[in-house]
Amino acid sequence: MTDMETVEPQKGFNKNFFWKVVYVVLLVGTCLSFYWATQQTDYIWRWNRLPRYFYYIETVDVKAEIEGEVTSISKKGDDSVVIVSDGAESEYYTIPGSDLRVDIGDTIYMGDSLGEYEEGRCGLLLEGLLVTIEVSLVAIVFGILLGLFTGLARLSSNPCIKWTAITYIELIRGTPLLVQIMIWYFVIGTIINNLSLKAGLPQIPELWFGIASLAIFAGAYVAEIVRAGIQSIHKGQMEAARSLGMTKTTAMIKIILPQAFKRILPPLAGQFISLIKDSSLLGVIAIREMTKATREAVTTSLMPYELWFLCGVMYLVLTFALSMFVQYLERRTTS
To answer: Keywords for this entry (predicted)?
Structure first.
């Protein structure tokens, strides 16, 4: 064989395929082991009861609120309209469908049933899931904005702006999120709502104090991520932009930030995944997010295993979807 001859790769054992098979075997073995362990526990599994915690049909009983006589029953589309009069005033009751329990001329007492109908309603876990998504999305948006401006302030040459940003970052990162949530709700929230009450303004719901605490907490970490991303760009980029006549602000917006954005996407994804999981702490201020909803469902159903497993899977779906979205953004920015 001469040096000019090429050696063809041998078609034989494929290591890559082998380790893929090993991974699948380990995954299936872990699932089977977990299933075997659940069968060894003295517990009756009730997986069939879980759908009602997402959506269920409730029978609504329409009751009279006054004493009197049924003076009229009319149809309004598919609904029935019942009028009860006590001689001085009349009450109108709309009953979807035609399941009535009264006739014209019947004497009605307060609390008597006039009819009933079925209505579909969101279950406890679905309500908690929607609240978790709402809180997380709003907190992520405000966290990005706050972190971006704070990160830029952290790099400012103005001592007042720079030291203010550093103080905010160190204060927030140095204290537990649970303590911050308590302060926002019981201290800042109480002060704001008391001032609003004196001024005749509406009260702010506890949901917004929870969002504020999460957004400010995330903003401190996003600020450091933004700062590190900007500083990772070579100084020559800014100098080249300035030499072309750009102002520092224009160069930062058009040259530095787009390059830094590609580098900070992975750590931003990790921070926002943590934020979704941290939203479970809002249950301490009576916000019915996913964890609090699961805790309430466990209390009433006595199904801790099924509900907590389901809660974990729901968090996993949310965080995995966010991770896939960030990976999509990474591919778009690098293509």
So the answer is: Amino-acid transport, Cell membrane, Membrane, Transmembrane, Transmembrane helix, Transport
